[in-house]
């Protein structure tokens, strides 16, 4: 109940303009009761970041595991599609994860932990690719981590960009992201990318 109310209030006003009093009012509790649950606004927001990011990461982690072995492009496109499906259906979470980046250390740490988890999940997906064809010799774990970081930050940037370009559909975003990423990844993974 508290996190649901906080999600709405923070998404509407942003971290800096949101007060604990406003969250308590939206949750139908008093401000002291809110402080019984969360010691500060940063603690509340960090818990919200973790909940939203875990929901997003968990969704595409499960989706990726359902893709049969053998088709790297299918895994890539389904993962990207799942991310943008979640973004489209969770505007408040979208803003909290991709747009609002408070400088408070506790919040920054929550964002950092979830970014690390996202990289680990993506690296595990890249590890399913039998062979990588990179121009630089890297051990496999480091190569998977590199590709995961590059893909993650590209998708993060596209998700943030979509906020101001919502006339584009989810399908268009998936295709644009595939244009940007898959053509290079298709070469790296040994699959020939589909060029439309």
TrEMBL record:
Domain (HTH tetR-type) ranges: 1-56
GO molecular function: DNA-binding transcription factor activity; transcription cis-regulatory region binding
Organism: Actinophytocola oryzae
InterPro entries: DNA-bd_HTH_TetR-type_CS, Homeodomain-like_sf, HTH-type_TetR-like_transc_reg, HTH_TetR
Protein's UniProt keywords contain DNA-binding: yes
Pfam families the UniProt entry points to: TetR_N (PF00440)
Protein name: TetR family transcriptional regulator
KW DNA-binding (keyword) present: yes
PROSITE patterns according to UniProt: HTH_TETR_1, HTH_TETR_2
Gene3D superfamilies, sorted: Tetracycline Repressor, domain 2 (1.10.357.10)
Keywords: DNA-binding
């Amino acid at each position: 109940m508290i996190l649901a109310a906080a999600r709405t209030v923070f998404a509407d006003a942003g971290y800096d303009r949101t007060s604990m009093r406003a969250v308590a009012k939206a949750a139908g509790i008093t401000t002291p009761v809110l402080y019984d649950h969360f010691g500060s606004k940063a603690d509340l927001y960090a818990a919200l970041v973790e909940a939203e990011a875990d929901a997003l990461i968990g969704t595409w982690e499960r989706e990726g595991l359902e893709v049969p072995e053998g088709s790297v492009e299918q895994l890539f496109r389904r993962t990207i599609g799942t991310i943008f499906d979640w973004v489209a259906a969770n505007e408040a979470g979208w803003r909290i994860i991709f747009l609002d980046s408070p400088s408070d250390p506790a919040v920054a740490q929550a964002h950092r932990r979830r970014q690390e988890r996202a990289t680990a999940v993506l690296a595990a997906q890249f590890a399913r690719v039998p062979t990588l064809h990179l121009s630089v010799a890297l051990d496999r774990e480091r190569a998977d981590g590199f590709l995961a970081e590059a893909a993650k930050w590209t998708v993060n940037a596209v998700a943030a960009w979509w906020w101001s370009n919502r006339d584009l559909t989810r399908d268009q975003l998936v295709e644009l992201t595939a244009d940007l990423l898959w053509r290079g990844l298709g070469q790296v993974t040994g699959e020939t990318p589909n060029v439309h």
